[in-house]
Every structure is written in structure tokens, then in C-alpha cells.
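Appendix C: a fully annotated inverse folding record. The material below is reproduced so that readers can follow the format used throughout the book. The structure is listed first as C-alpha cells, followed by the designed sequence.
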């Protein structure tokens, strides 16, 4: 027993702090249901009949971009060789039924791999997945990319912002006022 005292007890750095994961299974279900209900209404709302960038070489309408229709990649896409794809919007989604959610919206002019490797959202997603597993709940988190984003950074940021406010993606800091921060900080 004395030998074990030589080594201080340390938690591995991949274990989340309990204070971040105090949400009960019922509270998690309610949190997800509120977001799902909002996102369902956002996806079925009437388009505003105007393009976002009237003079942009790459016009896009916020109401026609459906993140759930994009090809989903698992989070280990970072382990694969980097392609030359750049300048995109990316979406973290949980497509598990019955409440698929758009969790995060981001933009980058770097490759998605370069952007994602050190992103704060990566930890949020880890905590989100861990809580689901703790309660044996279905969770299917992946990431989707849309390479039709404007090359002009100002236009791309405006599009990202409009999508964040349309969908109210809970892991974007702009939306913490509605959903809180149960998986981060």
C-alpha cells in the first residue's frame, strides 16, 4: 500500500469534470427536445425570398442551406490525410433519432482538419457524447462540410452568423443565452 502513495492520484486528462456532467437523463432529454422543437420550426419556416449576397460571386440563401442534407463524416476525419479543400462552413450534428440536432456551425478558410484540431467545440462534443453513454442513450455525432461558402471572409462570416441565429445551434457561444452551457466551461 505504501508504494501506491508514491504516485499522486491523477485523473486522465480525457475524463470530464463531474461538475460539467451533472445533468440528469431527464434534463438532457428535455434540453434536447427544446432545441429539436426550435430547429424543426426553423427548418420548416417560410423562406424570406431574398438572396444573402446579391452582388457576391457565390450567392447563397440561408433558407435553402440544409445542414442535415450534407454528407456526414465521423469525427475521426482528422486522422485522414488532409485534402486541399478549404473555405467552407462546417456543421457538427447529432443525427440520433428521435431528436436529431444541429450542435455547432463554423466557418474556415483553412482546411477543416486544421480548424477542427484545436477547436473548443471538440471538448463540448466529447462531454455531450460521454453524458449520453453514461445514460445509455443513442448518440451519433458527426461533422458535415459545405464547400460552397463564399471565398470572401466578410460574406462567409455573415452567412455563418445568419445560420447560427436561424438554427440556434447550442454549442455556438452566440446561442448560450437560449440553451446554456451544460457541456463546456
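Designed amino acids, in order:
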Amino acid at each position: 500500500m505504501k508504494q501506491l502513495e508514491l504516485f499522486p492520484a491523477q485523473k486522465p486528462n480525457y475524463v470530464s469534470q463531474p461538475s460539467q456532467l451533472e445533468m440528469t437523463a431527464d434534463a438532457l432529454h428535455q434540453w434536447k427536445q427544446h432545441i429539436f422543437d426550435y430547429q424543426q420550426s426553423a427548418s420548416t419556416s417560410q423562406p424570406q425570398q431574398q438572396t444573402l449576397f446579391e452582388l457576391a460571386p457565390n450567392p447563397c440563401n440561408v433558407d435553402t442551406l440544409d445542414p442535415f442534407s450534407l454528407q456526414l463524416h465521423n469525427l475521426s476525419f482528422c486522422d485522414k490525410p488532409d485534402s486541399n479543400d478549404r473555405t467552407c462552413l462546417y456543421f457538427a450534428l447529432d443525427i440520433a433519432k428521435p431528436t436529431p440536432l444541429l450542435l455547432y456551425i463554423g466557418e474556415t478558410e483553412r482546411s477543416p482538419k486544421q480548424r477542427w484540431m484545436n477547436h473548443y467545440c471538440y471538448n463540448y462534443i466529447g462531454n455531450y457524447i460521454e453524458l449520453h453513454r453514461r445514460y445509455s442513450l443513442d448518440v451519433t455525432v458527426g461533422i458535415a462540410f459545405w464547400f460552397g461558402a463564399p471565398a470572401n471572409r466578410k460574406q462567409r462570416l455573415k452567412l455563418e452568423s445568419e445560420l447560427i441565429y436561424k438554427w440556434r445551434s447550442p454549442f455556438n457561444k452566440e446561442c448560450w443565452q437560449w440553451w446554456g452551457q451544460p457541456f463546456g466551461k
